[in-house]
Write a structure and sequence with these properties.
With about 350 residues, the chain is an alpha+beta fold. It is built from 9 helices and 20 strands. It has a 6-stranded mixed beta sheet with strand order 6-7-8-3-9-10, sandwiched between helices. α3 crosses α4 and α4 runs parallel beside α5. The termini are far apart.
């Protein structure tokens, strides 16, 4: 039976420093949710509150109908997978996996059977008698995952579990984690600072800043339709251009900005456009053009990014990053226009008073 997790109005302090600020989050039964953000944003604090290693100043934590808020950590029956594996170096791989079962009073024959079955699931049956020090980083992480899963917890939590692995192994392990989590239908929280990792593994992602969730949504929505400037920058919208509508003609909108910026945009492509807004684009969303419309600029440094060139550009809207085809390289100092590509853009609410 899968179990939902509910966090309500959590506030937490380290001394006088507030590290979580009225945070609420609903994780569906069997759902894997990532907490994503830079160091110090509060994601690990959130995990530690749920695990029972810290106590909130305010707020409640429910796992299904059970109030965990003041329950001792060892009574919460949560599976934990840490960045540093946290394996017992003097115990064999099998005994490490069986440790949680022993703590729960499972008899020797039964816990050996269940630990062995879990090692088989993570592909480590042949390593049962070895000590952790004889394993690679990826193998140790599999042992840690097996140890967390074997107790059949209603909630599984990961704290930066892949950051010590090389890039290729990180990709392999996140696929394994996702497959095992889905097979067990275990509700899971995954803490990471790596956007690609979070987006690839999660049903939904909570992007955090300064102890608050700035947006909580499916990875596809976060990537294409960020809710605010912070999330937009976080997911790669490097260019934020303030504009105001000067004319509307059916679905077409004419918008202007500082220093002669002139754009024609389509609401059928971008969605509803308010009278004042911010056009957010990735570098690939601004195309270098010799036309008469767009953002006037002077090109600076050109860099090769594989599928295109990226250009540093100085404009009346400030410093922007634009894209141009490999077939037509531009030189620094050229005066051109930057034209938005709708599929790489989104509309944000203006941060200026209207």
């Amino acid at each position: 039976m899968t179990t939902p997790l509910t966090l309500r109005n959590l506030t937490a302090h380290y001394g006088t420093n507030k590290v979580l600020d009225d945070l609420s989050l609903d994780v569906g039964a069997g759902e894997l949710v990532s907490l994503l953000g830079a160091s110090g944003c509060g994601k690990t604090t959130t995990l530690r509150l749920v695990a029972g290693f810290l106590q909130p100043t305010e707020g409640t934590i429910y796992l299904g109908d059970t109030d965990l808020t003041r329950l001792a950590a060892h009574k919460r029956n949560i599976g934990l997978v840490f960045q540093n594996y946290a394996l017992f170096p003097h115990l064999s791989v099998l005994d490490n996996v069986a440790f949680g079962l022993k703590q729960r009073g499972i008899g020797g024959a039964e816990r050996t059977k269940r630990a062995g079955q879990m090692l088989e699931r993570v592909g480590l049956s042949d390593f049962a008698a070895r000590l952790p020090g004889a394993l690679s980083g990826g193998q140790r992480q599999r042992v840690a995952l097996a140890r967390a899963l074997v107790i059949e917890p209603p909630l599984l939590m990961f704290d930066e579990p892949l950051s010590n692995l090389d890039a290729k192994l990180r990709v392999e392990m996140r696929v394994e984690i996702r497959e095992l989590q889905r097979a067990n239908q275990t509700t899971a929280i995954f803490v990471t600072h790596d956007q690609e990792e979070a987006f690839s593994i999660s049903d939904r992602v909570a992007i955090m800043e300064s102890g608050r969730i700035r947006q909580f949504d499916r990875p596809e929505t976060l990537y294409s339709r960020p809710a605010n400037a912070f999330v937009a920058r976080f997911v790669g919208f490097e260019n934020l251009i303030p504009l105001r509508v000067t004319a509307r003609d059916g679905d077409r909108v004419t918008a202007e900005g500082e220093g002669g910026i002139d754009m024609s945009l389509s609401e059928s492509e971008l969605g509803s456009i308010p009278d004042r807004f911010v056009l957010a684009t990735r570098p690939d969303g601004l195309r270098v053009s010799d036309g008469d419309h767009g953002v006037p600029c002077q090109l600076g440094l050109r860099t090769y990014v594989g599928r295109a060139y990226h250009y540093q550009a100085e404009t009346p809207a400030g410093h922007l990053v634009a894209s141009g085809p490999l077939s037509q390289p531009r030189k620094g100092g050229e005066n051109v226009r930057l034209v938005p590509e709708p599929e790489q853009c989104c509309i944000l609410a203006s941060e200026e008073p209207s």
